[in-house]
Amino acid sequence: MKNCRIEVELLTLIITMSESLQKTVCVVGLGYVGLPLAVRAKEKGYDVIGLDTNEHSVATINKKESPIEEKYLEDRMADFAPEATTDPSVISRADIVLVCVPTPVDKNYYPDLSPVVGACTSVAKYAKKGVLVVLESTVNPGVSEEIVRPIFEKAGHTVGEDVFLAHCPERINPGDEKWNVTNIPRVVGSFDKKGLDTAVLFYRSIIDAEIRPMKSIREAEAVKIMENSFRDVNLAFVNELAQSFDRLDIDIVDVIAGASTKPFAFMPHYPSRGVGGHCIPVDPYYLIEHAKKTGFDHRLLRTSRAINNSMPEYTVERLQDALNDVKLPLNGTAVGVLGIAYKENVDDMRETPTKKIVEHLHKHKAVVLTHDPHVLSESSEKDLDSLLEKSTALILATGHKEFLSISIDDLKKHDIKVVVDGVNKWDKNAFVGSGIVYRGIGH
């Protein structure tokens, strides 16, 4: 009897998954999160429509090309590019809608939920009966209950009857060839059992990893905030230690290597010129601001954000100290900034620390030159030799492979006097005896 029951359950699952693959998925927001998800759903047999407001991105996708520098996409766009459009009425065709729009903060670090509100308003307007709507955008706990659900109810929907709402916080790591949309485990929460079961089944049909159901949609929202706040706090810890160790003449990279020999209760994090990307420097603010409404003050998260936000300025301070060694002022000195993207070997500029580094350099009246082979449109110098030729000092702001291959001889040929390694990627021992002053971050 037990074997018969297992066989019946397995058959039911196979039939249900077969039916799900005949469904249409609409992905709202075709950026770093939405486009890989759309391509993956297409690859797994779904009919997929992509919706975005960026006409250039839509046109590029419809040519079966990726507007994003990402190997996963570049390998699959020719065969699995979704249909892309700027017309929100296509939502009416979808059985499953995935909302993957940004959740930024403004210049005062206050959360901006207008993209989520706008996207959900459009989905509520066009959603057909029985649709599953999954919010993938990172939000603070309570957004699904206090903002998303009321939008659908105002549009005349009954949540749990004619529309099912779920939250599956995005997990993506741009440029990572091992971990991508196909194999990163996910968590899912919903308002009701049917919404949860449908969402879990969908994600299990496209992702080759664990899909963990959460007890509530609020718990699912809290997972992503916790993940990224954990990273932010630990990065703040090593960034603060780096500033202290620079004064104590201790190499933090060596200390981390030593601490890493402990086989338990230690996880290495590394200091740098600042924290970038759309998640880590943004998500803690969503929890900080939401908690204020309940009367709670996240002192640790606020302090961590302040430390990490200070690192671009500290990087420029390291440059000033190094220039002092060669009796040069920062004022009027040509400083080449290597890298605009927030992360190595990608074109992602979201929340990049380079922007703040450049601002501080301008504040000190340096002559600023920039080059990024992955973001040439934002580079003042279109080739590396041009930047090296014009620069007296360098800041390595992004560890692109193109920059890590620069030799000491290259630097000496262009008469570079000072380098600040903002990501601790260059071999500092190679600079010993070279006549070039080297500074890292705690290194």
| Topology-level CATH name of the largest domain | Rossmann fold
What percent of residues are in strands? 5-15%
Major sheet summary line: 8 strands, mixed
Q: Give the integer mean of the pLDDT values.
A: 94
**Rounded radius of gyration (Å):** 24 Å
Placed side by side, the strands forming the largest sheet appear as: 3-2-1-4-5-6-7-8
Measure the end-to-end span.
Answer: 66 Å
Let me know the number of strands: 13
Classified by CATH, the class of the largest domain is: Alpha Beta
Count of folded domains: 2
At the fourth level of CATH, the homologous superfamily of the largest domain is: NAD(P)-binding Rossmann-like Domain
Question: What proportion of the residues is helical, as a percent range?
Answer: 40-55%
- Structure classification: alpha/beta
The helix tally amounts to 16
Say what oligomer this is. Answer: single chain
- H/E topology pattern: HEHEHHEEHEHEEHEHHHHHEHEHEHHEE
Q: Using the alpha-carbon principal axes, give the shape.
A: globular
Mind telling me which CATH architecture of the largest domain this is? 3-Layer(aba) Sandwich
Q: Which stretches are low in confidence, meaning pLDDT under 50 for 5 or more residues running?
A: none
Features:
5-stranded parallel sheet, 13 strands, Rossmann fold, 16 helices, 443 residues
